Amino acid sequence: MSALENFEKMLAAGRDNALLRYSLGNEYLKAERYAEACTQFEAALAFDPKYSAAWKLLGRARMDLGQFAEAAEAYRQGIEVAEARGDVQAAKEMAVFRKRALKQLGEG
Prior knowledge:
Blueprint: H1 3-12, H2 18-30, H3 34-47, H4 52-64, H5 68-85, H6 88-104
């Protein structure tokens, strides 16, 4: 059984939480199933809006979908969360990714 199948099985069994949704989103991202990845990252963030890693991968999934404005917004929120938590490295990474999203929009 693949990790994706295992996580889907856990979710179907009712073991729903931020980490499971994040892990499931990450597996969808690896499988290039970007819309499903976004749904899972959004669900993870509904559980924990301060989950900076989920913001980061939500931005990436939206970038891969060509949703650059939405990606920039995810990164903006992720930067705020990461800075508030003292996660300087995550904030720096998301700032770089946000610039790329804004550049795609002609704003960078």
